[in-house]
Amino acid sequence: MYRLLVVDDEKDIRENIQYLIDWGRYGINQIETAATYEEAVNKALDIRPHIILMDVKLGDGRWGYELVEHLRASGLKAVCCMISGYDEFTYVQRSMQAAAKDYLLKPINEKELERFVERAIVEELKGRLPQRQVDPPDVDPVLKVEYGTLSRITNKIIMIVKGSYRSSLSLMGIGEMFCMSSKYIGRIFLQDTGMRFSEYLMAYRMIQAKKLIETTGDKIVVIAGRVGYTQLNNFYVHFKEYYGFSPKALRGMEETEKNPCTAVCDEMELPENTHMEGKEEKFPETAAAKESRAEENAAEENEAEEEQGNAGTPESEAGGEAVGKRDI
User: Fold this and answer.
1) What percentage of the chain carries pLDDT values higher than 90?
2) In CATH, what number is assigned to the domain containing residue 46?
3) Which residue from 190, 225, 232, 230 is spatially nearest to 208, judged by alpha carbons?
4) DSSP string of 43-63?
5) In this predicted structure, what is the pLDDT of residue 216?
6) What is the dihedral of CA 54, 61, 19, 247, to 10 degrees?
7) Number of domains in the chain
8) Which domain range does residue 309 map to?
9) Residue 35 placed within a domain
10) What is the CATH number of the domain that holds 327?
11) 157 to each of 19, 108, 131, 225, how far by Cα in Å?
């Protein structure tokens, strides 16, 4: 029903936005991206988008608000929202003068983006929002707690992870963004969550990878790159440590990997009067079990190396755009 155009000179930003919210839920069934002023003009006049997300400062030395004015002069009546890593009043003022309807700071908060989309559909496009049930509490997918129970700093760190987990992230880089010591914010994050930042980042990447494996037909090596991994072997190890089965087993390609003990248990002879109810009985690992486990691990390593060799090492997504200093 609706068409969306995302204009940003950074590839990871363009890709992140496409997966940041459920666009289909709002009837947005076509998403196009552009990296330069000229490409944006051509795509905008070609697809006639209803909504445009526009970076304030484009990499070719041009300004997003100039592009908004250009498109309006061409007769395009799209609802525009400026996105930027800078919170300077001049940029905000100039964007509003160009008739942009909102101004979102990077990393983009998904709730703020959803609110803009809802306003754009109802107030500007005179459309209807999908009926929604009573929203459950806003719970973090890794921590399983409501965001309202976490400190402001921890919430900001989580927001950055959500927007930039495909890129190279470090607590030191986030500390510089906040103008704070990485040790200080790391200690607060650990106290709030019970997890180190690196553990949280890995867990969030695993959750996103699982979604992609379940909902797309992309190769595992491609998915690894899309969630921030440049080494496929590391991705395989982390995925199996987190979920207990390999990425390919999740797709049903290797059913035995989903329950690797099945074949081993079939080979084990249990005593006749052994009852498995109540307390779980533990048995020593048999030679057959050890051999099966060794073969499984070797096959998995070969599988990862083979796919790495076929597809090449995925390129690491570059770090996000520098942002202006903001108070925490």
Assistant:
1) 50
2) 3.40.50.2300
3) 225
4) HHHHH--SEEEEESB-TTS-B
5) 85
6) 180
7) 2
8) 138-268+286-328
9) yes
10) 1.10.10.60
11) 19, 12, 32, 22
Tokens of 232: 């496929």
The model's pLDDT over 74-98, given as tens digits with 9 standing for 90+, comes to: 899 999 999 988 767 677 778 888 8
Digit-coded pLDDT (tens) for 260-283: 454 334 333 333 343 333 333 343
Rounded to whole angstroms, the Cα distance separating 71 from 65 reads: 10
From residue 242, how far is each of 139, 146, 166, 277 by CA, in Å? 20, 22, 18, 28
Q: Write the CA distances from 222 to 1, 166, 216, 307, 308, integer angstroms.
A: 30, 12, 11, 10, 10
Place of tokens 């009546």: 77
pLDDT digits (tens, 9 = 90+) for 129-177: 877 655 567 889 999 998 889 998 999 899 889 888 988 889 998 988 8
- Its pTM surpasses 0.90: no
Same domain (yes/no): 109, 152: no
Domain assignment of residue 129, yes or no: no
